[in-house]
Amino acid sequence: MYNLVSFAGIFILLTFAWVLSSDRRTINWRVVFWGVLLQLIFALFIFVLPAGTKIFLFINDVVVKVLDSASAGTRFLFGRLALPPGTTNEMGEESLGFFLAFQALPTIVFFASLMAILYYVGVMPWLIKVFSKLFTKLMRISGAESLCASSNIFVGIESAMTIRPYLTGMTRSELCTILTAGMATIASSVMALYVFILQGVFPTIAGHLVSASILSAPAAIVMSKLILPETEKPETLGIEVTPQYEKESTLIEAIINGANAGLKLVLGIVALLLAFLGLVALIDLFLTSVGMRLNSLFGIQIDWSLKGLLGYVFYPFTLVIGVPPSDAFEVAKIIGERTVATEVKSYQDLQVVLSSGAIKEPRSAFLAAYALCGFAHVASLAIFVGGIAALVPERTKDLSAVGLRALLAATLACLMTASVAGTFFTQGSILLGGN
Length: 435
Fold this sequence. Notes:
Blueprint (H helix, E strand, L loop, with lengths): L1 H18 L9 H19 L2 H29 L21 H5 L1 H15 L2 H17 L3 H9 L20 H13 L3 H11 L6 H23 L23 H48 L7 H15 L4 H32 L5 H10 L6 H14 L4 H28 L12
Helix pairs in contact: 1-10, 1-16, 2-3, 2-10, 3-5, 3-10, 5-9, 5-11, 6-7, 7-8, 8-10, 8-16, 9-10, 9-13, 10-16, 11-13, 12-13, 13-14, 14-16, 15-16
């Protein structure tokens, strides 16, 4: 029954985006049709067909083993602080508990270097071209925006560099698609962080995060084109575009540059967490003090924390994507929290509620993991708008104008990805962590 709810949720979310569209008469329905169909075909292949299941488990195992290798550097630098909870080192010393700064964040540096190597040897450019050709031919969108959306499956803000020569002449709809694709997906370098956080309670999380990022790319294009339809003629419409990026002269240079980029990313994440979690705590202090008086005055019981209020906003959406009502509010709070406190905090909270048993249904955890898989939050909006504006200062006004619409489209795209995945959920399958 809940699979049918998730399937219906796909079209409910599409309708919601259509209602909020800036121009409902000029929507390109070919984009919507092929975007949804591509997601359903990919999800069917991964979750239902035996060959897809084997590939899914292979990818999950590869990511987990690579993550184990990444921990070698952290153990050397931080000793017992780098040991995950419940583990011991070669000398028999036990872990001191979970420390985000010493166990999870450093893996980003390793994965950033690994991605740089894959770029250098040509693996990433090839994969990006494959997805870009698929999106361009089937959805008939511009080559520049399909290339950028494809890049975002694997990288983050740096994906804009692959289409830098085309940014100046892009339409507002194209700019919205670029921002949406950036916020609806995750970078491979930070995926390791989420795997590290959830692996203990969700054994196949690595494979799910990879599939979620792939599913979210067409979802981002669909939601973006519904929220802000194309009313102009893009310069690269129907034209395949070649990625523009500077290749390092040697493999060692690629490793060094990747590590430096990863370190900058870690510092950026630390800064965002320090700033936004502090601001959220300050807002909570005000809201809860006022809310307690209102609860007492009117004899009501409402959670007035920012997380709680956002939970009420996202509650209908969690029901729409197929979360059972018994877990819907708990999941809604975590998804809502992502919009202001970043996905890192939300994934941490998901791990906590799964460990404590606050979320009872495996389906709920599965859908939450997919719905959270994206940079759809206020901090990310500022990063993407600011980052792309730095490349094309003359388009700053247009980027700022479409920013909020892109954030809305990215949020709906993440929810749509969860609905697509929920359509194929089965008890006792790889979706629950079994082999």
